[in-house]
Amino acid sequence: MSSEIEKVKVLIIGSGPAGYTAAIYASRAGLNPLLFTGAQPGGQLTITTDVENYPGYPEGIMGPEMMEDFRKQAERFGTQVKYGMVTKVDFSSKPHKVIVDDQKEIHADTIIISTGASAKWLGIESEERLNGKGVSACAVCDGFFFRGQDVAIVGAGDTACEEASYLANICNKVYMLVRKDEMRASQIMQNRVLKNPKIEVMWNTETEEILGQDEVEGVRVFNNKSGEKREIKISGFFVAIGHEPNTSIFKDSITMDENGYILTKPGSTKTNIEGVFACGDAQDHVYRQAVTAAGTGCMAALDAERYLAAQE
């Protein structure tokens, strides 16, 4: 490990809308933040094609381009953006200590965690190949592109039911693929789906392959009880089997819920550790939108600024 230790007032871990917004606010406040991008600079939006629901882009914008804009804006006000992965943290004493790429040590007066979350996928080749070309893990983000068309959604929890209902409002037909003969979702959500004439629930059904070369044209499914296969014509394929917050390196340092989302004090971004704040999808499992992530990024920077002012 390098012997040289870098000292900063504000360290931001992660680079999605939350991290970059926190950086814009912290740098404008004269706090000279240092931001490490993590393994996926720009976060989940970099694997999203068209973003049409972020205010201020009337024509829509490509996800990677939007994150590039966020980064440039943060850098313009003096944020130091570095490529690197935080591999270890020590919040047991002040200043807080962080190791980057197993070698560089940073001491920070405040830390803003914006490591985001990653969608869980089925793990089949066609899903990866057609990701962003009709395959999506966010119906609220991408459902609009399939207005009046037939789509399929995989999942059996509350989120899957909610997204199926959302899609049914704008699509012609929604096939809901459920692996077992029952759902995990709450009764009220199940009832909503089962009563909706535009949603066809296919029980004991698993995905074998998503069909299409350059865009989704259909899906081949099989019944795991009878073994019977079937091909369905669709143009959109949504995966709603959950998300996983990218928070494992903090698990011994910070209070989280049972799924690994960092718990923050209501109405703030404060964690159980003084001077450590969390924003974006690392702590939000409800909304998970770019605009809400950016909002909590702003909150985290303001919380950090107030914390630093109180320490002086």
UniProtKB/TrEMBL annotation:
Question: Residue span of the signal peptide, if any?
Answer: none
Which Pfam families does this UniProt record tie to the protein? Answer: Pyr_redox_2
Q: What is its EC number?
A: 1.8.1.9
Its BP terms in the Gene Ontology are: removal of superoxide radicals
Reaction(s) this enzyme catalyzes, per UniProt: [thioredoxin]-dithiol + NADP(+) = [thioredoxin]-disulfide + NADPH + H(+)
Keyword terms of this UniProt record: FAD, Flavoprotein, Oxidoreductase, Redox-active center
Q: Which cofactor does it need?
A: FAD
Q: What class of enzyme is it?
A: oxidoreductase
- What do we know about how this protein assembles, alone or with others? Homodimer.
This chain's protein is named: Thioredoxin reductase
